[in-house]
C-alpha cells in the first residue's frame, strides 16, 4: 500500500515547506531523511496527523516497527477517523506478529470506508494464518473485485482453496497469478501442488521445472519433483536425483520433506537431518505461550490426540479400537480434530468412545491455548511432518509432555517433541542417537491395530478379480511412489524364476501402470504378468487379499497400514528391513505375530525366500496356517493389550515429569499373556 499524506491542519509556511521536502525525500527513496523531516513537522505542529502517519511509513520502511506503531497511534489520537493510519498500523502489527490487533486495525480502516484491495488482501492473509479459511476467501475475493490485477490476492486465494480441498479452483487462481506475473516462481510451486492433488503428475513436474528455471529455492521443491516422478514410476534419473537431494540435505538445506526422503533413502542419519532442516525452515520453536509446566494431579492423566485424520482414514483403521479400549478410570482422553469435519462411520465410532473437539478453522495458537486450558498432560501428535500436519501446535507447547506416535515413521527433529513411540524392531538398540526424541519402547509392535476391523466375504473368483485361475500371485498394494527401481528389478527376477506367476499391484495412475509394464518388458517379463487392481472400499479391499498368495514389501519405505491390512486378511508379508524406522515397520508387525521366517536379512535373501515360497506350495500353505493362528492368538491384533502397554508408557513419562525429571528413554515391560480372545473380534 503506497504512502499517502494526511491533510495537514493550518500551519506556518515553514511547516508546509518542511512537509513538502519530507514528501520528496520519501518519494526519492530516502526514508531516513523523510522520517527526520516528518518528525520536525510534528514537533512544530503536534496536531498534524499527516506528519505522524507519514513518519510511521518511513520508520516502517527502515524496520523501526515499534516507533512506526507509535507514530500511527499519534496520528489516530489527532484524528480518530484517519483511515490510512489505521491501515498502516495493521501492516506494522502484522510484521510484529500481532495478528488479532492487526485485524482490528484493518477492520477499523474498512469501517471508515477505506475500501482498498490491499487492505482486504491483508485481512485475508490474517484469516488464512488463523485457519479461518472461509473468511479469508471472502476477503481475497473482495480484494480481487476491487483490483482485478492484484496478483497477491489471487495467490493467497489459491493457497486457501488448496487448504479447503478445492484444487480445481486453486489451479485457476495460480494460473491467474502467472498470467499477471510469469516470473512468479512461488505460483508455479503452488500450482504444482494443486496439480499433484488432482493426480496430474506430468503437468505438476512441468510446473516444478518452471519454478526451478526461475531460480526458486523453496523448501521441499526437489523432493516434490521426485515424489511426482515416483508416482508415475519414472526412474530414468533416479539415482542422480536421489544423490542430489541427499547432498542438499547434508548441506543443511530443506530440499525435501521427510515424507519424500522416507521413500528414497534408507539412512536413519539422513532422516534425522531432513527432519531437523524441515523444522528449522518451517516450524521452529515458538515460545510466545511460555512453558507448560506439569500439573499436580491426583486423578486421571489427561491425554490429547491431535490429527486431521479422525475419519475413514488409515490412521483410524488402526486406532479406532484404541480409543474404545482406553481405561477411563485412569485416563481422560480428548481427540483434537483439525481436519475437515466429517460424519462418516469412523468419526461416529470415535465420538462414541471419546471427547472429540472440532478445532478445524482454529489457529495453531488457539488450539495450543485450548489444550492448556483443558490442562492436557500429554499431547500425542499423530501426524508428525506428513501431509496436513500441524506441527505449529506443538512448537507452541500444547502440553507439558509431547509425544509422536504412529503417523510419522521417524524423528520429528524438533526440540519441542519429548518422546517417540517405537519398539525394539523399528529402532534397534544402538540407533537411538538418530532420533531427536527420547524413545518409548513398547514390548511388542509399536503399531496399535483394531481387532474389530470389518472385512467383507470374498465374492467371485480370481478370474473375476482379473487374475489367472492358477499360478502364484505375488502382490503389493502399496502406493506406487514406494516402488523403487531396485525393488522392481527384484520382483521381475522372482517372476522369471517362478513359472506362471503374476504380480498384482494397485493402480494409482494409468501412466504409472504403463511405465511398469514397459519396465517389465525390458526385464524380459511379459506385460500381461503385471495385473492392476482398481481401488475399492476398505472392507472389499481387505477381502480381495485372499486371492493373493504372498505380499511383497517395498523398501526403503515399507508397507505400514497396508502391511497390517494384508496380515489381518491372512496374507503373508515378505519384507527386508533396512536401517531406518520407515523400512522396519513390516518386520515389527511380523515379529509381533511370531513370523520371523518372513523377515529376510538382505535383498538377496528376500528374493530367494520369495522364489522358494512361490515354488513350494505346501511351505506357503503352512505359513498361512501359522498366520491364521497367530492372527487369532498373537499380540499384534490384541487392541486392549497394546493400549495397556501404551498407557503404561504414558503413566511412566508423566510420573517422571511430575517429580521434575527430564525425558529419558522408557522401556515398557510386557503384560502377562492375555486370554486367547481378549481384545479381538
Provide the descriptors you would attach to this structure in a database record:
4 domains, alpha/beta, 681 residues, 13 strands, 28 helices, 5-stranded parallel beta sheet, 8-stranded parallel beta sheet, disordered C terminus, Rossmann fold, disordered N terminus, Serine Threonine Protein Phosphatase 5, Tetratricopeptide repeat, globular
Q: So, the CATH homologous superfamily of the largest domain?
A: Glycogen Phosphorylase B
CATH domain fold name of the largest domain: Rossmann fold
Number of domains: 4
Q: In the CATH classification, which architecture of the largest domain applies? A: 3-Layer(aba) Sandwich
Question: Explain this structure to me?
Answer:
The N terminus and C terminus are likely disordered. The protein folds into 4 domains: 114 residues, Serine Threonine Protein Phosphatase 5, Tetratricopeptide repeat; 62 residues, no CATH class; 152 residues, Rossmann fold; 166 residues, Glycogen Phosphorylase B (Rossmann fold). The chain has 28 helices and 13 strands. Helix 3 runs antiparallel to helix 4, helix 3 runs parallel beside helix 5 and helix 4 packs antiparallel against helix 5. It has an 8-stranded parallel β-sheet, covered by helices on one side. The protein has a 5-stranded parallel β-sheet with strand order 10-9-8-11-12. The protein is an alpha/beta fold and 681 residues long.
Amino acid at each position: 500500500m503506497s504512502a499517502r499524506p494526511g491533510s495537514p491542519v493550518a500551519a506556518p509556511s515553514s511547516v508546509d515547506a518542511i512537509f513538502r521536502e519530507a514528501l520528496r525525500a520519501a518519494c526519492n527513496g530516502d526514508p531516513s531523511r523523510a522520517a527526520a523531516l516528518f518528525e520536525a513537522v510534528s514537533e512544530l505542529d503536534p496536531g498534524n496527523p499527516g506528519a505522524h502517519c507519514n513518519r510511521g511509513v518511513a520508520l516502517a520502511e527502515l524496520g523501526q516497527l515499534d516507533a512506526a506503531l507509535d507514530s500511527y497511534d499519534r496520528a489516530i489520537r489527532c484524528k480518530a477517523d484517519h483511515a490510512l493510519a489505521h491501515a498502516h498500523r495493521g501492516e506494522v502489527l502484522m510484521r510484529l506478529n500481532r495478528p488479532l490487533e492487526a485485524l482490528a486495525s484493518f477492520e477499523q480502516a474498512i469501517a471508515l470506508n477505506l475500501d482498498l484491495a490491499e487492505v482486504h488482501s491483508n485481512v485475508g492473509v490474517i484469516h488464512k494464518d488463523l485457519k479461518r479459511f472461509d473468511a479469508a476467501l471472502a476477503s481475497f475475493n473482495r480484494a480481487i473485485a476491487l483490483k482485478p490485477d492484484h496478483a497477491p490476492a489471487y495467490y493467497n486465494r489459491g493457497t486457501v482453496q488448496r487448504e479447503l480441498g478445492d484444487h480445481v479452483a486453486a489451479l485457476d487462481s495460480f494460473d491467474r497469478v502467472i498470467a499477471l506475473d510469469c516470473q512468479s516462481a512461488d505460483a508455479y510451486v503452488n500450482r504444482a501442488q494443486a496439480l499433484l492433488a488432482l493426480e496430474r503428475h506430468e503437468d505438476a513436474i512441468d510446473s516444478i521445472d518452471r519454478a526451478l528455471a526461475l531460480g526458486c529455492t523453496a523448501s521441499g521443491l526437489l523432493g516434490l519433483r521426485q515424489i511426482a516422478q515416483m508416482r508415475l514410476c519414472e526412474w530414468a534419473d533416479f539415482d542422480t536425483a536421489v544423490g542430489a537431494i541427499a547432498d542438499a540435505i547434508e548441506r543443511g538445506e530443506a530440499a525435501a520433506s521427510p515424507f519424500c526422503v522416507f521413500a528414497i533413502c534408507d539412512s536413519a542419519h539422513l532422516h534425522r537431518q531432513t527432519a531437523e532442516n524441515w523444522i528449522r525452515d518451517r516450524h521452529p520453536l515458538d515460545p510466545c505461550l511460555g512453558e507448560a509446566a506439569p500439573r499436580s494431579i491426583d486423578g486421571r492423566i489427561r491425554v490429547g490426540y491431535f490429527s486431521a485424520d479422525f475419519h475413514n482414514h488409515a490412521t483410524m483403521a488402526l486406532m479406532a479400537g484404541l480409543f474404545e479400549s482406553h481405561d477411563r478410570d485412569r485416563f481422560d482422553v480428548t481427540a483434537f480434530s483439525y481436519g475437515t469435519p466429517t460424519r462418516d462411520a469412523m468419526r461416529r465410532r470415535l465420538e462414541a468412545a471419546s471427547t472429540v473437539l472440532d478445532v478445524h478453522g482454529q489457529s495453531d495458537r488457539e488450539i495450543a491455548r485450548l489444550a492448556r486450558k483443558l490442562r492436557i498432560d500429554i499431547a500425542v501428535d499423530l501426524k508428525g511432518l506428513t501431509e496436513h500436519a500441524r506441527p505449529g501446535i506443538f512448537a507452541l507447547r500444547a502440553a507439558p509432555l509431547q509425544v509422536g506416535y504412529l503417523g510419522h515413521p521417524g524423528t520429528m527433529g524438533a526440540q519441542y517433541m519429548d518422546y517417540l513411540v517405537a519398539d525394539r524392531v523399528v529402532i534397534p538398540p544402538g540407533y537411538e542417537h538418530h532420533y531427536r526424541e527420547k524413545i518409548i519402547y513398547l514390548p511388542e509392535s509399536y503399531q496399535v491395530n483394531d481387532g474389530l476391523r470389518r472385512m467383507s466375504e470374498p465374492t467371485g473368483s480370481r478370474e473375476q478379480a482379473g487374475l489367472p485361475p492358477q499360478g502364484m500371485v505375488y502382490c503389493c498394494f502399496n502406493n506406487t511412489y514406494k516402488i523403487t527401481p531396485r525393488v522392481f528389478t527384484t520382483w521381475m527376477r522372482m517372476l522369471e524364476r517362478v513359472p506362471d506367476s503374476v504380480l498384482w499391484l494397485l493402480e494409482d495412475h494409468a501412466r504409472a501402470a504403463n511405465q511398469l509394464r514397459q519396465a517389465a518388458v525390458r526385464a524380459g517379463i511379459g506385460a500381461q504378468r503385471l495385473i492392476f487392481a482398481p481401488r475399492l472400499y476398505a472392507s472389499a479391499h481387505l477381502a480381495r487379499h485372499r486371492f493373493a498368495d504372498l505380499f511383497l514389501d517395498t523398501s526403503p519405505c515399507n508397507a505400514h497400514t497396508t502391511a497390517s491390512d494384508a496380515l489381518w486378511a491372512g496374507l503373508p508379508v515378505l519384507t527386508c528391513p533396512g536401517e531406518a524406522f520407515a523400512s522396519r515397520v513390516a518386520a515389527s508387525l511380523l515379529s509381533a505375530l511370531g513370523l520371523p521366517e518372513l523377515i529376510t536379512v538382505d535383498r538377496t535373501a528376500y528374493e530367494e525366500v520369495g522364489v522358494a515360497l512361490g515354488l513350494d506350495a505346501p511351505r506357503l500353505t503352512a505359513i498361512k496356517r501359522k498366520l491364521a493362528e497367530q492372527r487369532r492368538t498373537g499380540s499384534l491384533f490384541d487392541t486392549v493389550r497394546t493400549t495397556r502397554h501404551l498407557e503404561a508408557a504414558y503413566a511412566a513419562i508423566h510420573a517422571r515429569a511430575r517429580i521434575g525429571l527430564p525425558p529419558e528413554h522408557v522401556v515398557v515391560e510386557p503384560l502377562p499373556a492375555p486370554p486367547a480372545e481378549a481384545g479381538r473380534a
